[in-house]
Design a protein that fits this description.
The structure holds 2 protein chains of 2 kinds. By secondary structure, chain A is mainly alpha-helical. Chain A is built from 3 helices and no strands. Chain A has a domain of 65 residues: Orthogonal Bundle (Helix Hairpins), CATH 1.10.287. Helix content of chain B is 71%, strand content 3%. About 1% of the residues of chain B have low confidence. Classes of the chains: A mainly alpha, B mainly alpha.
């Protein structure tokens, strides 16, 4: 088995993270923002797994399980919010939610 | 009662003397309109009666053996000089609420409570119909309290308290009918003009305390005479500042402009301000500080000249007035001028005696004028009166008594006091023959304007259409008659006053032998010359034909000189040009206050920051996320640069 160097894993993870982040700030549709967030979370998960295997420690996998749980909870809440938003604004455009404008 | 009890009791009575009207004031203000006329009037008058009886009692206890009665109430506060200041005797002086009764304050409290009581009685009848009657009586009571504190104070701080209290009450009372703008303006003017003098007085007190380290009047007089010789610079400046205060309160040149306007108040107020309180405060101050003033002969000379200038100016102005109350106001000014002249000449007891007799007859004149004005339905113009001799004989007789005293015809009280003043002028060190001529000319003017007033108001044909409505109130008549009696027989007090004041003014016993023999005869003859002159000069005012034939031409002369005199020798417009206009101009120039703008720069800067920060709050989630991302990126960048640079080194 060829060991994949940690740097490769980290490059993959940061690429994924940047893709997710760019999705968050460019997408207007809230559903897509949530999906981009998932991508970002998974990028972090990949980084943890890679680091865990590079140092032969279980902590990385434990953290990934935590992130997975967090992601599940976030999706549950986010979808509930999406439904409410669709009901109230008849749209999923995130820019409509700007009542906090100074 | 044993002999030991009596002094203690006297002290107690003295301690309570000024507080009866204060209690009445508090009750009247608190209960206000809930009190009926009868209750409010009896409350305020009862307080005055108690004060008057107390002063009678304490004055009766004064004798050659006991020239001074003091009463210590409590210690007010302690003053100490700052380190490094000119310390002479002691570093701290305690300011007490102490009442000090000697011959001078005895005269003053008898005038304040006696005449004050009669004015209160008159006012109760005069103001009966006013809806704010209890407020009026409350202010009158407070006025008396302030004046009593002023004259009984044993130190200058307590005196200053009374001094300011008098100023406040005059403001409240002149502007009593505050719905009319003219009254409010007059009240404001009185307040501001006297405030100029008060400031001078306060500065004088500061310097006095810095130099002598104490403010108790007796100590000041003693120490000043020990430390300074006559003509000392410090004494000069201090007395000059004290004189500034006296000039403001007593309406002397150049701060006299408030007094004629003060006629805006109800007539009893005018009587109170002009006779018993307020304007006499300045005279009292100089008389009280005579020990200090004697150390500054130049200032004494200024006092005399100020008094002479004022009495001439006021006499000339009185000649042209058309309002009966304004004639009396100017005559007050000129009589106070006589008192100042007398003080300046060193004839202190004559000045104080004139203060007392003037209080009697000026209160009588004002109150009678008030009764006449009411009878004529608030008509104050002399040119709308005339022929009152037959219509209002009672008032006419009383007014004539007052005028006789004002002119100082032989036998009246004014004669004794005014002659006493004039007699001492010629050979005085600080006055002299020139001032004597001024005083004589002033007496001539006094008799001329008095005659003009009498002819216009009481003789000739009546020039009014209304039905007369003379008041039949017994209270009113009682107080008028009492004042008339006092004015007539006031001369008999001359010896008593002189005896009681001999202790206070030790240097006052002046022997006048170098005077020319004709001085007295001229002084006595002067008022008669004035009467004869005006009998012919104002013949048209008293004759019936001319007035009846051309009623419409019977108005105040509108020639330039007459207008100039009527406006009090145009001092008002002079001050308007000299002070008010430039001040308003400067205020106009600096409309957008420069310093204000500098301060507003702060506010502008804060506002700018606010706008910048506000624009960052877009409310758009994606912007926030982007900002967080950017910030994290920058943070990481800085950290990595830091790490790389530490590894490299």
């Amino acid at each position: 088995m060829i060991a994949i160097p940690l740097s490769h894993i980290l490059i993959l993870a940061s690429t994924l993270f940047v893709i997710g982040f760019v999705g968050v700030i460019t997408r207007k549709n809230t559903l897509f923002i949530l999906m981009s967030l998932e991508v970002m979370l998974n990028a972090v998960g990949v980084a943890f797994i890679g680091a865990g295997s590079a140092w032969q420690q279980a902590d990385g996998q434990v953290m990934f399980i935590l992130i997975l749980t967090l992601a599940a909870a976030e999706v549950a809440l986010g979808l509930a919010l999406l439904i409410q938003m669709q009901r109230r604004f008849k749209s999923l455009d995130i820019d409509l939610l700007s009542k906090l404008k100074g | 009662m044993t002999d030991n009890m009596l002094p203690l009791m006297t002290e107690t009575v003295l301690a309570f003397l000024p507080f009866y009207p204060l209690i009445s004031f508090v009750l009247l203000i608190l209960l206000g309109k809930r009190l009926s006329w009868r209750l409010a009037a009896s409350l305020s008058i009862a307080a005055m009666v108690l004060s008057a009886l107390s002063s009678l009692f304490v004055i009766s206890q004064l004798s050659v053996d006991i020239p001074v009665i003091t009463s210590h109430l409590w210690t007010w506060f302690t003053l100490s000089l700052a380190e490094g200041a000119n310390q002479t005797n002691q570093s701290a002086a305690s300011i007490n609420i102490n009442f000090y009764l000697d011959g001078l304050s005895a005269v003053m409290i008898s005038v304040v409570t006696g005449v004050g009581l009669l004015i209160h009685i008159f006012a109760a009848a005069y103001m009966k119909a006013d809806e704010n009657f209890s407020r009026f009586m409350a202010y009158m009571n407070l006025f008396i309290v302030a004046m009593l504190i002023l004259v009984l104070a044993d130190n200058l701080v307590l005196l200053y308290l009374g001094w300011e209290g008098v100023g406040l009450c005059s403001f409240l009372l002149i502007g009593f009918w505050y719905q009319e703008k003219a009254n409010v303006l007059a009240a404001r003017k009185a307040f501001i003009v006297t405030r100029i003098g008060d400031t001078a007085l306060a500065i004088g007190l500061f310097i006095l305390f810095k130099e002598l380290g104490q403010l108790t009047i007796v100590d000041i007089t003693q120490n000043a005479q020990l430390l300074w010789v006559a003509g000392d610079d410090k004494a000069y400046w201090i007395t000059l500042l004290l004189l500034g205060g006296a000039v403001g309160k007593s309406a002397q040149l150049p701060l006299q402009t408030w007094l004629p306007d003060a006629m805006a108040g109800p007539t009893p107020v005018s009587a109170l301000i002009h006779a018993a309180t307020m304007v006499t405060a300045g005279v009292y101050l100089i008389a009280r500080m005579n020990g200090l003033f004697l150390l500054a002969p130049e200032v004494m000379n200024y006092v005399a000249w100020l008094g002479a200038a004022t009495l001439l100016l006021a006499g000339i102005a009185a000649l042209a007035q058309s309002d009966i109350k304004r004639v009396l106001a100017y005559s007050t000014m000129s009589q106070i001028g006589y008192m100042m002249l007398s003080l300046g000449a060193g004839a202190f007891s004559a000045g104080v005696f004139h203060l007392m007799t003037h209080a009697f007859f000026k209160a009588l004149l004002f109150l009678t004028a008030g009764a006449i004005i009411v009878a004529l339905h608030h008509q104050q113009s002399l040119f709308k009166m005339g022929g009152l001799l037959k219509r209002l004989p009672f008032e006419t007789a009383l007014f004539a008594v007052g005028l006789v005293c004002l002119m100082a015809l032989p036998g009246s009280s004014g004669f004794f006091s005014k002659e006493a003043i004039i007699a001492q002028l010629w050979s005085s060190d600080t006055a002299g023959p020139l001032l004597w001529y001024c005083a004589i000319f002033g007496a001539l003017l006094t008799s001329i304007y008095s005659c003009r007033l009498f002819f216009l108001a009481f003789m000739g044909e009546s020039r009014f259409e209304q039905n007369l409505q003379p008041s039949s109130s017994k209270l009113l008549k009682f107080s008028l008659i009492a004042l008339a009696v006092l004015s007539l027989i006031g001369g008999v007090f001359a010896n008593i006053i002189e005896m009681s004041l001999a202790e206070v003014f030790p240097l006052d016993t002046r022997i006048v032998e170098s005077d020319p023999y004709w001085l007295h005869s001229v002084a006595i003859a002067t008022p008669f010359v004035g009467i004869i002159f005006s009998w012919f000069y104002f013949a048209s005012y008293r004759s019936k034909e001319s007035a009846a034939s051309n009623k419409n031409t019977f108005i105040a002369s509108s020639s330039g000189i007459a207008t100039f005199c009527r406006q009090g020798l145009a001092f008002d417009s002079f001050y308007h040009w000299l002070l008010v206009k430039p001040y308003c101009y400067l205020a106009q120039l600096n409309r957008r206050d420069v310093f204000d703008q500098l301060l507003m720069l702060n506010a502008w800067y804060v506002g700018l920051c606010h706008d910048v920060l506000k624009s960052s709050q877009t409310g758009k989630l994606r912007w926030y996320a982007a900002a967080i991302g950017l910030a994290t990126f920058l943070l990481l960048l800085v950290l990595s640069v830091d790490v790389i640079s530490t590894e490299a080194s």
